[in-house]
Amino acid sequence: MNDCPFCQIIAGRAPCRKVYEDEQTLAFLDLYPISRGHCLVIPKRHIPLITDIEPQDNIAGPFFRTCYLVARKIKNAFNCEYITMLIRGTRVPHLHMLIIPTIKGEENLLDKTLNLHHFCQIRLQPQFTAAELDAIAEKIRNAQP
Question: What is the active site of this protein (predicted)?
Answer without folding.
Answer: 96 (tele-amp-histidine intermediate)
